[in-house]
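[recover] target loaded
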């Protein structure tokens, strides 16, 4: 009987140009089917409010596995009823339903998928989640089950589920099923990459950043890949997060186009200022790169110091700000064109090699620490005039400090002996506004401030200044 149907199907295909898969699809040959297993499904758990959690399920069904009905030559339709149910161990049940319709020609059925998502709000607890897909006539039914524990102590920093995605882009389309926090997150439920899909994207949410009991004012984030439990150092990227907001979006990407084929874990770790791990999450991904045979070489392996090679992109950008007084115009322009972490590390490797290597790096870091005394809530110490001169020319031979007097503002005179090309030079800094910030008023160095009448700027104008204020 099956052979007869296939033969008739072939004849119809020759007449109408319909692909034979429709007649060899077992769902069209039998009136009764056992429940199939749904593959290409992923789950994510996110905090919704102080009581509820939002559980999202993402699915990516190959269309050729789903029964279609012909509506006219080379045009077919399918309609699936989707049900998402959460059964708690206490007996409480949460459930939602949706319908998925699609009209396709034979080529799209063979090559494309049905990508979608569903959401369900639940309270904390342990649940058995069941996603069921069934067509209208009941001849096709498939499902998948997952046991998930929902809920974490709200007093701690929490990291939501990690979601792997095909892409993450800014968006204002709130009607999109993939809209999340001003982003369009197109999920990749199978977490499969490679073969041209060379960048893996990841989305998560961080909670309790500001309210949790964490040591320090910053959170140190590290992302990397592991394979067979071994950390791939060449994939590690570090960032520093501030604690301005209690909840933030985590979105990162990882280039996988040069990785060997196989399974990897994408790992996120968060540490406090004492370097204690406060959160960690993992996501298994699968990479297929048949032509890749050479492992990625980490450019930072040849850096001057191991701790320098591990700098995050934010720390490298801060170093760019710190070297403002000593960087050349061409170097500054070159840095502005850099877009990757490794390129910025390589830039600073060459930058410091040209200035004396490891010794100069260490001296510079020490000087940065000394400039902190001159910083304020408005400006970092290395951004002040004294900080810039210290970083540019080093420590002075002698410093004369003059305190505030009745008619003269506080000021300092720095003297450098044996200054290159000039011998003995001086720099004068004064607190001309009485705010505690010392400006560079005068110097013997032609490229710096020059004002022979610098003493006039130090004259105090305080007499009588308070009478109008008190009136």
């Amino acid at each position: 009987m099956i052979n007869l149907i296939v033969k008739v199907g072939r004849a119809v295909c020759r007449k109408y140009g319909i692909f034979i898969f429709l007649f060899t699809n077992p769902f069209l040959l039998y009136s009764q089917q056992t429940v199939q297993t749904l593959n290409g499904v992923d789950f994510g758990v996110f905090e919704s409010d102080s009581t509820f959690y939002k559980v999202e399920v993402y699915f990516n069904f190959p269309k050729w596995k789903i029964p279609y009905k012909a509506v006219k030559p080379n045009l077919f339709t399918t309609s699936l009823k989707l049900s998402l149910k959460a059964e708690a161990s206490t007996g409480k049940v949460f459930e939602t339903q949706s319908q998925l319709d699609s009209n396709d020609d034979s080529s799209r059925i063979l090559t494309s998928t049905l990508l979608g998502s569903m959401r369900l709000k639940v309270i904390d607890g342990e649940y058995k989640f069941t996603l069921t897909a069934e067509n209208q006539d009941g001849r096709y039914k498939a499902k998948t089950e997952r046991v998930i524990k929902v809920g974490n102590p709200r007093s701690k920093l929490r990291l939501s589920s990690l979601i792997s995605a095909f892409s993450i882009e800014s968006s204002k389309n709130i009607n999109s099923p993939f809209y999340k926090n001003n982003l369009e997150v197109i999920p990749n439920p199978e977490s499969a990459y490679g073969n041209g899909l060379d960048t893996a994207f990841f989305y998560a949410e961080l909670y309790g950043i500001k309210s949790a009991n964490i040591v320090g004012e910053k959170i140190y984030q590290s992302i990397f890949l592991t394979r067979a439990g071994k950390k791939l150092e060449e994939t590690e990227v570090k960032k520093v997060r501030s604690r301005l907001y209690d909840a933030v979006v985590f979105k990162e990407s990882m280039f996988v186009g040069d990785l060997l084929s196989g399974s990897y874990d994408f790992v996120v770790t968060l540490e406090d200022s004492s370097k204690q791990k406060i959160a960690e999450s993992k996501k298994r991904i699968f990479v297929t790169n048949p032509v890749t045979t050479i492992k990625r070489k980490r450019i930072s392996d040849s850096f001057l110091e191991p701790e320098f090679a591990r700098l995050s992109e934010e720390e490298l950008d801060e170093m760019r700000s710190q070297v403002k007084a000593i960087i050349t115009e061409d170097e500054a322009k070159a840095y502005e064109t850099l877009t990757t972490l490794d390129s910025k590390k390589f830039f600073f490797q060459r930058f410091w090699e040209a200035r004396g290597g490891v010794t100069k790096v260490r001296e510079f870091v020490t000087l940065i620490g000394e400039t902190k005394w001159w910083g304020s809530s408005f400006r970092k110490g290395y951004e002040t005039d004294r900080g810039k001169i210290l970083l540019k020319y080093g420590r002075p031979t002698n410093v004369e400090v003059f305190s505030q007097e009745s008619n003269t503002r506080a000021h300092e005179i720095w003297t450098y002996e044996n200054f290159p090309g000039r011998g003995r030079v001086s720099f004068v800094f004064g607190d001309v506004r009485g705010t505690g910030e010392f400006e560079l008023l005068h110097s013997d160095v032609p490229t710096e401030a020059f004002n022979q009448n610098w003493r006039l700027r130090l004259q105090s104008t305080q007499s009588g200044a308070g009478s109008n204020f008190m009136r």
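[recover] notes: Residues 117 and 267 are 24 Å apart (CA to CA).
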